[in-house]
Specification:
The complex is a heterodimer. By secondary structure, chain A is of the alpha+beta class. Helices cover about 20% and strands about 40% of the residues of chain A. In chain A, strands 2-3-4-5-1-6 form a 6-stranded antiparallel β-sheet, with helices on one face. The longest helix of chain A is centred in the first third of the chain and has 14 residues. Chain A is globular, with a radius of gyration of 15 Å. The relative contact order of chain A is 0.29. Chain B is an alpha+beta fold. In chain B, strand 2 and strand 3 form a beta hairpin. The longest helix of chain B is centred in the N-terminal third of the chain and has 14 residues. The chains are: A alpha+beta, B alpha+beta.
Chain lengths: ~140, ~120
Amino acid sequence: MDTLGRQLLIELTGCPGHLLDDEKELEALLILAAKQTGAEVLQVHFHEFEPEGISGVVVISESHLTIHTWPEYGYAAVDIFTCGDCVDPWKACEIINARLQAANYTVMEIKRGVGMSWKKNCGEDDTNAKNADFV
Amino acid sequence: MHQLGRHILAEIYGCPAEVLNDIKRVEEILVNAALEAGAEVREVVFHKFSPQGVSGVVVISESHLAIHTWPELGYAAVDVFTCGDTVNPWDACNYITTHFEAQNMTATEVERGIFSEPKQVVNL
């Protein structure tokens, strides 16, 4: 059955607190993870909360990655949403889980836009992704 | 049981293509939805695809709202993630559904960051 997108909801627990409170490192990690899937990064925004915690989004031409961290709980909520068959969200998942040294994690994969007929093939000229205009 | 966040995944169908393809309108609806829910908007990141479709994220102090639209299918995938007790993600979700003039909407709420004490399970 056709689906438009795949979304991974990742719950990371037991992460070292300092890894979850380093804005620059988390930003670099999410960008790296996005690129690892083969995605094209469009825009990045990260924000550090007082006294602790980071929120960040990476908008990719194939959808988005987000992270919200609670260093005091050693917990991070990560979402990876990709559309099309050319990017694999699980590749991003693996790299994030490994880098944040989670003692435990769970991943829920949710299919978005099920039954919608929209298909693109890898390697084809994808005007949706390639001719994107920055706003 | 304590949850840190509430995450609604909404599938919105039957929306007019011109609404889903209008980046300014999509952005305005998402920002207003965040405000409707009582959230504090921090950053707005939207992107228009060619020939059609809009992707966007509204970063709020209480987490985020995200949208991806397929105007040609009249479909939008919406996420509303909030933490804390002061914001109700369903207010944002309902606002978005109404203002996109959706014919149908299905939504799932996922609790994020659940921490609970281990429980002894008794077989009744």
